[in-house]
Amino acid sequence: MEPKISEKAWNPELEKNILKQWEEEKIYDFKPNDDNFTIDTPPPYPSGRPWHIGAAAHYSQIDMIARTARMAGKNVYFPIGIDRNGLPVELYTEKKHKIRMRETERGEFLNLCKDALDDLEAEMILIMKSLGISGDFANYYRTDSEEYRSLTQSTFIDLWKKGEVYLANRPNNYDWVSGTTIADAEIIYDDLQTKLVYMKFKIKDTDKEIIIASTRPELLCACRTIIVNPDDERYSNYIGEKIIVPITNSEVELRTHHSAKEEFGSGAVMVCSYGDQNDVALFRELQLEEIVAIGLDGRMTEVAGEYAGLKPKQARTKIIEDLETAGFVEKIEDIVHRTPISERSKIPIEIIPMEEYYLKQKEKIGKMKDIGKEITFHPNMHKQILMNWLESINIDWPISRRRFYGTEIPIWYCKECSEPHVPEPGKYYRPWNEKCPITNCTKCKSTEFIGEERTFDTWMDSSVSPLFISKFNRDDEFFKKVYPASIRPQAKDIVRTWLYYTLLRCEELTGEKPWSEAWIMGYGLDEKGMKMSKSKGNAIDPLPVIEKLGADTFRFWSASEINHGYDFRCNEQKIESTKKFLSKLWNVSRFLSSFPVIDSGIPTASDKWILSELDKLVKECKKGYEEYNFFIPAIAIREFTWNVFAAHYIEMVKARAYGIDFSDEERNGAIFTLHKTLATILKLLAPITPFITEHLWKILYSNESIHQQKQVNFEDIEEQTEITKEIAEFNSKVWNEKKSQNLSLKDSIKIEIPEILEPFKKDLKSMHNLLD
RNA sequence: GGGCCUGUAGUCUAGCUGGUUAGGAUACCGCCUCGACAUGGCGGUGAUCAUGAGUUCGAAUCUCAUUAGGCCCA
Fold first, then answer.
1. Each residue's pLDDT tens digit, A425-439
2. Which helix (H) or strand (E) holds A647?
3. CA of A737 vs C1' of B29, distance in Å?
């Protein structure tokens, strides 16, 4: 009997042919019907080379979701998109061409960004395809396409008309390196070394002084008041007194406020516009008039007097010197201070009052909480990230950005009276470069307009992804069928941005939640558990790994190593060692391929035993697949295939399958059971390793793709776990005994079979060559 | 400062509705060509289950404190 499979190992090169076949046969094509499973696939962002190996793992798992759903009989809509709006590509382009955005002509700069994006995007598409992602590549979308941007703009125009958008002059987080306002969500915190300066402030008309500690002495010129804790007895006599600010000699009042901590510094705190978020809250609460000490260029303004024009850090150094010279310094401590930093440019942000557009969100928080409660989270613990974020939102969403590569805010201002005008929705507008489509100002009838130059926060684009993929406003019939989406898979670090903003926007625009399930994954860390980054040099390029080991190896590694929802470590050696399992599966199949596939057989005791173990496996996998937790089936299938099926069952029935000293009926029982078990394993494994299972399936069982099969269901056979343990123990005992007697495995030996294994006697005897 | 999550052999992890010789994978060491597989088989080394205390006849598993890490917020 020649095996149908002759090659001794799985060759990842075969994956390329299989991909081609899938493409030709269009087996993943989507046509909407009445019961669709829509995946709101995260469009990856091309920010540089190489693409993150953690992202490759992430997309592999998203594909497992699609394949699981497909095999569960669902009509799967799996769109593929690329997110192309935003700051990172601008920074990449500036660096690549050694230019500065603001010193380059806008159209020219946009073209350079586009080219960079095209290159980076090509690499990502290549990786996604090689991974076997069963998405709709033929219709992939870009968030910077006219179609997408016009959706973003239309939804904005809609909200504008509903009065959800307003312009406000408020203290904003300002990143002066990027030259833009940033949302709270884009701020990270880092512990930075800084100096805590203890300064002497004179109390007016007395010879007394109080000590105030601050890390921002350059903001003395913007100091409006000094606060102490109401319980702080050190200052109780001076409440309401005028205090003279050193250097500037201005007078401010000493007041009490609970936010001043007695134990910090001297207990007295100067309140300036704006040192930190607490200052912002105090200015608002105490209705103080702000002093703008730092300008949009990130330098001190004229109110800083002789420090004007300096960067805050330089001004700080200089003012400390001057304070020391003038005798205002009591002492200076070096401390580590938790400082808010721009996530993108990594520099400390400044808080500067600016006029920006806001989208109302505060009054929606209750509604968002309700929707959040309705959505199933996988794993459930990550719902907490959203809930915590909802608890802590305290301002509306600033949506305008002073950048170039983004969706333009579609507003024109009347040149005469400055009245803002929004155009009709449905088209893509570029106000910085286009004539206003409105002919006369609605207020003063003037015909001259100035186009808005700012762009939207990129989350304004990304947050309508469920609407874009479902052709909202473009194809009502299609929209009705695929919206709301079934599932949103995404990484856990963007729950408070992408996930939250999507809930907010989609609910505002459709009155419905965007999806019923959210599937949240952790980050890929390097082998030491550190976050991967290009600057640290610990980033792993996924492409060579996939090319060398094959997509299935990579995918099985991702399923078997990543505990769903938790951060995971990427280690090339571990990915490589996963390959062994595919090799095992290959060889099991190679062995079985030497026996004919038969439809039925009468199972013996051994066959019934392995079928009960198989049924247990099916149950276990079903549990994992229902939660889209691929760790469960991956581990269970590997354990069963290797350590139960191959190690014990196949060895037990080998002689029977060959028909040596067994009847035809007994032989058929073995062959039938062997194939039934393997066919089941292949189906169970198909969502995780689509290539090798497809290849083996087609050679052994059917011309029709395994990915068009229904997943197997369990039959509820009674478990025989006790037998499994006994068999493994008995086999181990025999192997050990032969070893200690220096016998070869094929040599005969006399060992008593335990009573419980009596029904398996004939198989065990032939397996170990046992003497009576 | 507050919140959420986590801490099991070098590494990844199972077990955590209390009672297991703490299971598996990987790495490492030794032996072995037995008609699927040396990308294999068999055997072995390796864990005071982060630390301390408590509840209990009994705790990796429950409670509290401490500590370390991750993420988030202020």
1. 999 999 999 999 999
2. none
3. 21
